[in-house]
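User: Before I run my own analysis I want an independent prediction to cross-check against. Here's the chain; please return only the structure tokens and, at the end, one sentence I can use as a sanity check.
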Amino acid sequence: MLESRYQKFFDEISLKISKDKIFTDKLHTLAYGTDASFYRLIPKIVIKTDNSKEVQDIIELANSMNLSITFRAGGTSLSGQAISESILVITARNFSNFKIASDASYGSLEPALTGAQANGLLARYSKKIGPDPASINAAMIGGIAANNASGMCCGISQNSYKTVKSMKLIFSDGTKLDTADENSKNEFRKTHKDFLENLNKFSRETKSNEELRAKIEKKFKIKNTCGYSINALIDFEDEFEILQHLIIGSEGTLAFIEEITYYTVEDLKDKASALIYFKDMNEACHAVTKLKLARDSKEIIVDAVELMDRAALRSIENDPVMPEFIKDFDEDVTALLIETRALSDEKLNIQIEQIEDLLKEFEVKRKIYFTKDEQEYNLYWKIRKGLFPAVGAVRVTGTTVIIEDVAYPIEVLAEATLELQGLFQKYGYSEALIFGHALEGNFHFVFTQDFSDVKEVKRYDDLMNEVVNSVAVKYQGSLKAEHGTGRNMAAFIEVEWGKEAYNIMKKIKLLFDPKGLLNPGVII
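Assistant: Structure tokens:
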């Protein structure tokens, strides 16, 4: 039986949306009570929407009744940002129209297309979208943009923030805006004059605050999805560019993304990968730093560098496709999976030689070998993408798999990563493994946790508090690099950013969502 206010909402929304798309039964609400994170919140009502008009109707009605709503696309969110105790709005599979420019330089995509579907549409033009999350086969465009998802190759140069061209949005009061349409923008200027004046004020104040501006510039030189994308306040002058870039990474707390138009990027077909085994973490991290600096100075072309510590290798060493020699490695061996791409095979050979030369000074356990064989390098990447599921498959019944992702400035990568490993040892998380997008200083760490035991919860709390201090304070890194702030790190945004920046984020939330009805408990 629904509470009276939700029953009233149900009765009224049922007049506009077919009841066969609205669910209040325990089976559906329980099924949608979790995303890919370890949180569970049971929604009162689940609604599957097919188009923006339905979303607008839901938002307007919820706003009039002061009921909170959360938007969900593929549900692959790892930080608890796609669940709700109130009204959960799901973009149904057919909310997936698209339009590709004649020269394929950009594509307009509705939120329920998966990243893989978008790339499939662009493949014949040798193009793709910039973001490349590991979950791209299931992650939908709405979530990819809302979380500023990145991945193994896109780094910070081709993520949603850097490649967004325009957006169609629905705000918390039901107002629609198309940032590519001058008529839509002019109408918004009339109806939301105070909104835009405040947004411009936030931008002017941030630009003129030299200390804060410098902090923002520094923190967004590495992957950062902790809090809002306040780099928009200093990166742009145009108010609508500021607005739409604030939406990127806002996790459904500021507006609903009806459609996003991405500039596309080249999908280079000539590629080679190498799985290289270094003697230890320190050696591997220093190799990463050298690769990163050489890439940034354009001395070499390297598209991805994925790190896997010994625990990560151990989690998949019994897979039949893995070579037997991995089992014989000592406890310190650390692997780097490196990929380079080119416009031609001739250029690819040159790039491989340059990378091999750069790595000659480092001690490796096996001879460096780059493969161009598609089946072979796809296997390497399949192994890397399977690390998180591999942990879940062997967890003890009753425990939860925790995955967090952080990013460090590249110049402190070795020192900071060794300290992170030391914290796992200190608190007895012997099964914890570290892997991730090393070229961007971005690591995921995964371990299992029992939340039914008070002592175990205390152990987890102590660990995470030390991790927060180490990452955000000591090394000035990002507590959330690409998985979004969600719920787990929302309490630590001020620790990472400081009071001044955090107050700006709260003002942004209040400006976009004055009643606090959009995805409460996430980010702010």
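Sanity check: The mean pLDDT is 95.
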